[in-house]
Amino acid sequence: xxxxxxxxxxxxxxIKDAEIGPRDxxxxxxxxxxxxxxxxxxxWGAYWLLSHAFPRTLCDGLAILLLVxxxxxxxxxxxxxxxxxxxxxKSAAERLQIMRDHRVGTFGAVGLVLILGIKFLAxxxxxxxxxxxxxxxxxxxxRWSMVQLIYRAPYARPEGGLGKIFxxxxxxxxxxxxxxxxxxVAVFLFRFWGALLWLAIGFSALxxxxxxxxxxxxxxxxxxxxxxxxHEVLALLLISGIFHGIF
Length: 247
Prior knowledge:
mainly alpha, 11 helices, 247 residues
């Protein structure tokens, strides 16, 4: 758990790099949804405190800012690189090469603006009394989606990378634990709708897996970050739809 916490956030986990082995990285994936749940609870606690001093709209924006700070924009960086690679690359090799370039291009920049803007609007559209459930669920399910992709999808880079280490060491045990925990959280907080949210994120992750297998031959660390951002927004949009009578 502490390794997952240390990897997915900027907060200290108390584990030194010398103590980390490849199998440890794989085992830590089982706790990704737990980290998401705790991040959501931290955001809600901060939101509650801020709401005593600031108006609703500003609190929503500050909550998103806090999430970016706590995660070190790790997943946003992956989203920007992925969008640049998809937009500019004409072949799988070109897309992978562009994704390695950490400079943000036009499509990456536009994607970041849009994803953060939609995230803010979706959060702002929700009744304030359900935010305490929404944030933990959205963050837990989005991080579960990364475990799904690591376990099921092939790794795209033949030369290897950090993502390959995860791919080789995330086993069925980690997938089962992450899946069970995310389902329990979703159903506990949203009952029937939580189960549908869980299914929607699961099918979306499967779609992302198929899409990137066709585009670049599998997944990379950047794709995992992009998937997390997409599923955070998807969860918020679906919950907003639930509370506005669309579903």
